[in-house]
Write a structure and sequence with these properties.
Layout (H helix, E strand, L loop, with lengths): L1 E5 L5 E6 L5 E7 L4 H7 L4 E5 L4 H11 L2 E5 L1 H4 L9 H12 L12 H33 L10 H12 L18 H4 L1
């Protein structure tokens, strides 16, 4: 009735529950053999934690007539009994999927995952840019040069200070490895 799948780096733990919730089998499969196993299985509920690769497996399950159920790992944790291992995790995932109040995560399409990846990459670029500008403001503050906040203000102020020949800015600072850095290369 319910198949619980615990994804691992080298092995996936599988646990099958029948109608009353008893464990009818426990198996281990290599991740690349999981799709073949699911393909041969009659339609059932396939429960998984929402993690890397879960949406791909979920879309495959939909194509094969299974009912995929993705859950947050935080919701599965209370169902793990005694000592944590792949077999017990798979059993806990299957058990959690049978709960009527469990909230599930919708399977994302490839387009949704691509858009999510794009947003995350952009978010990281913006975060790195902000971090670098703040670090540069800190370096300038050590030289007594105050620069306003904002990503558009920093390059203008830096260009202005270099053009005015601010006494506190050295023209050719050297890094700790001895290579000369030139101000104009960074402007």
């Amino acid at each position: 009735m319910v198949l619980g799948v615990d994804f691992g780096k080298t092995v996936c733990g599988l646990a099958g529950l029948d109608e009353p919730g008893e464990v009818v089998f426990r198996k281990r499969r290599q991740p690349h053999r999981l799709l073949g196993f699911l393909d041969a299985l009659p339609p059932c509920v396939v429960a998984m934690e929402a993690c890397g690769g879960a949406h791909h497996i979920g879309r495959f399950c939909l194509e094969q007539g299974h009912e995929p159920r993705l859950m947050s790992p935080l919701y599965v944790r209370p169902y793990v009994k005694v000592h944590k291992n792949d077999d017990r995790d798979a059993e806990a995932i299957a058990e959690a999927a049978t709960r009527p109040t469990m909230s599930f995560i919708a399977i994302k399409s490839e387009e949704q995952l691509d858009l999510q990846a794009l947003h995350r990459a952009r978010e990281r670029l913006v975060s790195d840019r902000t971090r670098l500008i703040n670090q540069g403001r800190g370096f300038l503050m050590e030289r007594g040069i105050r620069v306003g906040t904002g990503r558009h203000v920093f390059p203008k102020e830096l260009t202005r200070s270099a053009a005015e020949g601010a006494a506190d800015l050295s023209c050719e600072p050297a890094c700790m490895f001895g290579c000369p850095l030139r101000c104009k290369d960074f402007l």
